Amino acid sequence: MKFYKNTETRKLAIIASLAMMSVLSAPEVFAGTGGAEFAGIWTTLTDWMQGTLGKIAAGAMILVGIIGGVARQSIMAFAVGVGGGIGLYNTPVVIDLMMTATLEKAPLATEAIMTISNGL
Questions:
Q1: Among 7, 19, 64, 119, which residue's Cβ finds the most Cβ atoms within 10 Å?
Q2: What pLDDT is recorded for position 1?
Q3: pTM
Q4: Helix, strand or coil for residue 14?
């Protein structure tokens, strides 16, 4: 007696059993935990971006943007320089907010969304 009559069912059963074995044999994973050994590097990079070095780099971006704007007779190069300088200075804040985001206000938002969707 054949357990699987066609090859498609047999292939699907083999793939499903291999997937189940890989899931069951996987070790525990703790994503996002640890990494304390890199905290000093992050602090240094943050100090560089928001300290004197970051201000110099942002100023250089703006200065190059001004020069490029004069050369091309367009304000867009200046705007790109200002945007790059602002982005450089605020990058550590954005990364910290993304990596430590929580849903503290989720119950209030859920209630507000339900109220809006009901029309009441």
A1: 64
A2: 44
A3: 0.52
A4: helix
CB under 8 Å to 82, separation ≥6 — which residues? 61, 62, 65
Amino acid at 118: N
- 58-78 CB burial, b ≥16 within 10 A, e <16: beebbeebeeebeeeeeeebb
CA-CA distance, 120 to 108, in Å (whole number)? 16
CA torsion, ordered 106, 112, 117, 120, to nearest 10 deg? 160
Q: What is the mean pLDDT of each run of 10 residues along the chain (120 residues)?
A: 66 84 68 74 91 89 87 85 87 84 69 66
* Contact criterion met (CB below 8 Å) for 53 and 59: no
Please give the pLDDT value at position 105.
66
